[in-house]
Amino acid sequence: MPPPGTGTLFDLSFLQTTIHTGGKTMNKGLVLACGLVAALGLAFLNSSMSHESNEQGCAGSNCHAYKPGLFDLKPKSNLKVSVKPVGKPAETKYSAELLDASGQIIDFCSATTKPAIMLNAPKPGKYQVRVGVGLEKPVWDSMSVEIKPAMMSIPTSRYGTSTLKFFDSHPNTAHRASLARFILPEELPTELNLYTPDGRLARKIFKGRLGEGIHSIHWETRDERRRLLDSGVYLLELKAGTKTRVQQIQIVK
């Protein structure tokens, strides 16, 4: 999914690793804490929506082309927003994500063919919805939505908080940069490392403690001496506490 164009979410300078978490944004050791506040009860949403058209594609790689009018938004009760693609063939997969005003990913659903996706907001406020669709070539669109204060609201979670989940990297194939997303069930010491297929460490991407919730780590496909990594298939390893998840990622120099 593409980063915002104004106040860009991702820093593409040499060897930068930008981390957006369920409660933190870290840029090479700088931590900015921000909390998510939830109110309890039932609600209906009043929303205003507008298209965003000044963004660049997919972690700085421009793998998706901007195409406005890809989807419609429909507010639902209990802090939910329905995302429905427009003109998408039934078998074509698409993804959607919800970001708060600071650019932090609040909720997302990846690679589905469902007629609509329901995204969950934690509280009233201004949000952005981004959608990517794999048509003849990958395209994306973005809309902003303001969820106005209601009497009471009950926030819900798509994934729960009891399981470690490591989502597919995007883009994959990666050219110059990629985005790793995962969910932690609790605050844990966390590492993200890149290995060659023969097990040699190619790069230490991140090491530190992260809190419970959704996390996004944007990283450049360079080694620790600022050199672009050779093209090929690599292994991306996520270590969280005592658990480890590994996935393949294709890198093109």
Structural class: mainly beta
Approximately how much beta-strand content do the residues carry?
Answer: over 45%
Count up the helices: 0
Molecular shape: globular
Largest sheet: 6 strands, antiparallel
Round the mean pLDDT to the nearest integer and report it: 74
Helix and strand sequence: EEEEEEEEEEEEEEEEEEE
Helix content: under 10%
Uncertain regions spanning at least 5 consecutive residues:
1-16, 23-57
Oligomeric status of the shown chains? single chain
Task: Describe this protein's structure.
The chain has 253 residues and is mostly beta strands. The protein has no helices and 19 strands. The strands form 4 sheets. Strands 3-2-1-17-14-13 form a 6-stranded antiparallel sheet, with no helix packed on it. Strands 4, 5, 8, 9, 11 and 12 form a 6-stranded mixed sheet that branches. A 4-stranded antiparallel sheet has the order 16-15-18-19, with no helix packed on it. A hairpin with a 3-residue loop joins strand 6 (71-76) and strand 7 (80-85). The two termini are 21 Å apart. 34% of the residues are buried. Mean pLDDT is 74; it is low at 1-16 and 23-57.
